[in-house]
Amino acid sequence: MKIAIVRETFDGENRVAATPETVGKLIGLGASVSLEKGAGLGSRFTDADYQTAGATLTNTAAEALRDAEIVLTVRRPAAAKLAGVAKGALVIGALDPYGNEADVAALAKAGVTAVAMEFMPRITRAQVMDILSSQANLAGYQAVIDAAGAFDRAMPMMMTAAGTVRPAKAFVMGAGVAGLQAIATAKRLGAVVTATDVRAAAGEQVESLGAKFIMTDALKDASGTGGYARELTKEEQAAQAELVAGHIAKQDIVITTALIPGRPAPKLVTKAMVESMAPGSVIVDLAAERGGNVELTQPGKVVDHNGVTIIGYTNVQGRIPSSASQLYSRNLVSFLETLIDKAEKKLAINWDDELVKATVLTRDGAVVHPNFVATAAAAATPAAQAAVAKPAPVVPAATDAATPQDAPVKAGAAKAPRRAAAKKPAATADAAAPAEAAPVKKAPVRRAKAPAAPADGAAPAAAEPAKKPATRRTAAKKPASPAKDTE
Ligand code: NAD
After folding, report:
1. What's the sign of the alpha-carbon dihedral 258, 138, 315, 3?
2. pLDDT of residue 461
3. Centroid of ligand 1 to alpha carbon of 138 (angstroms)
4. 166 in Cβ contact with 485 (< 8 Å)
5. How many CB atoms lie within 10 A of CB 216?
6. How far apart are alpha carbons 252 and 259 in whole angstroms?
7. pLDDT tens, 370-403?
8. Which of 315, 331, 287 is nearest to 73 (CA)?
9. What are phi and psi of 87, to 5 degrees?
């Protein structure tokens, strides 16, 4: 059972699909691992480390891939590159199929079994395989680090002999996995943090991290299915805009993470709102890859508007590649463990397993995923091919109740990580954990220190299942700043 890992070729992608640690685990499962030299260097994993872990190094990608039964990847590889792999080889990664139907069809034609990890159902059993959560969690952290880097003042309150410096005010919009981690990180750095979301349940989670939740009375709860948000009505949007406009002008740092499955990112911060902020303020738009929450965001760029810095990096998790690769590669191993017969040391795929059914895009030369079968048929004609290449629809759904996947919905924005609609907001090991979590069997309970205590720098608040908000609220001592500063 040969597993191949090659260098990622997508521009700016520094992550790698296996680390020396996971290579050891893969070998433990009975596999041999071939790795193209230099594949881990972007994440600072050396060839020597991989070799020590038991990998065979190859000079070229083609050598690594030759006769491989499994290919682990971060991004979707070009079908042409996979020419030498074994018939039916599994190609497992974040394959980003929506808007890329022609590439998916090419993978089918190449005879590989393409597996899209972002379609992993968000059910208890699969939490450990949830690449969306593991990567969003890091992105939320990195967003605050990027904000701090661009901010020309200190984040925490500084009491010095020369006087006191007030803490920065940070506002997080969207309190899902990334947003909750951003809140926790900003708190650790000593900022005074407020947050908003359109799901009422997010309020308790925000408060459990020691931040203040703000929401307009006009918007009671816009929870959609699966723990996700629904799109707001025009009236609700107007009420939210009014709330945000009044609040944002007083903020130093704004982190936006708001997403709605199947839609382009909602526009929450207008040009006028940006112009209401003081020069030196910083906005990080984590939704940039889906078009952005901020009107002035330019995906992939950092722009300055009247002294306000707007950071629109895409692939933010890729800016912290070593950690991102560690978590991502563990997600892959956890999934692979369900596909391998450990005694026989060979692939033994249960094609009826809901995890397999939800993630397999192509098999035996055909596109088999229900969300793509129709488009694959249409793509058979050149005219249709041109048509399907344009839109970037979103949303595969997969839930604990194993509901069938939603039909894709067109999104205006281009490629983006797509969300599998989660039935339950169960606490995840690696994600900023939602408080309304459904029972989670294996959620590790960390005894975090007070999440809001900025000085210890060790409070993994957002990584902790927010099961005990009361306890954590007690623990969450506010930074020395007065509470009224929060608005
Ligand atoms: P997401 O990336 O789809 O959206 C990010 C956040 O933006 C969400 O909290 C959403 O409510 C919010 N949002 C949408 N429109 C908004 C607006 N107009 N203004 C402000 N905020 C807005 O969400 P996610 O991080 O993938 O999490 C979605 C849900 O899934 C959450 O309830 C989360 O706790 C849950 N979850 C479950 C699991 C699991 O069961 N394994 C794992 C991860 C997340």
Report:
1. negative
2. 39
3. 15
4. yes
5. 17
6. 22
7. 999 887 777 666 554 554 444 444 444 444 433 3
8. 331
9. -60, 130
For 439: left if phi > 0, alpha if psi spans -120 to 50, otherwise beta; the answer is beta
The reply to whether ligand 1 has any atom less than 6 angstroms from the CB of 228 is yes
Residue 114's DSSP bridge partners are: 91
List beta partners, residue 75: 94
The model's pTM: 0.81
Which atom of ligand 1 approaches the CA of 426 most closely?
40
192 phi, psi to nearest 5 deg: -90, 115
Annotated active-site residue 103? The verdict is no
Contact (Cβ atoms closer than 8 angstroms) between residue 478 and residue 210: yes
Which residue has its alpha carbon closest to ligand 1 atom 43?
133
Residue nearest atom 13 in ligand 1 by C-alpha distance:
258
Can you tell me the distance from the alpha carbon of 69 to that of 83, in angstroms, rounded to the nearest whole number? 12
Does residue 142 carry a catalytic annotation? no
Set 34, 43, 133, 135: catalytic member: 133
Q: Is 423 in the pocket of ligand 1 (CB under 6 A)?
A: no
Q: What distance, in Å, lies between the first and last C-alpha atoms of the chain?
A: 58
Distance 154 CA to ligand 1 centre (A): 30
User: Per the structure block, which two tokens stand in for 100?
Assistant: 């890329």
Q: Tell me the pLDDT tens digit for each residue of 46-55.
A: 999 999 999 9
What is each CA distance from 196 to 110, 169, 176, 230, in whole angstroms?
Answer: 46, 14, 10, 15
Q: How far is the CA of 35 from the centre of ligand 1 (A)?
A: 36
What's the token pair of residue 418?
């797509």
What amino acid is encoded at 264 in this protein?
Answer: P
Token pair of 393 as six digits: 């629809």
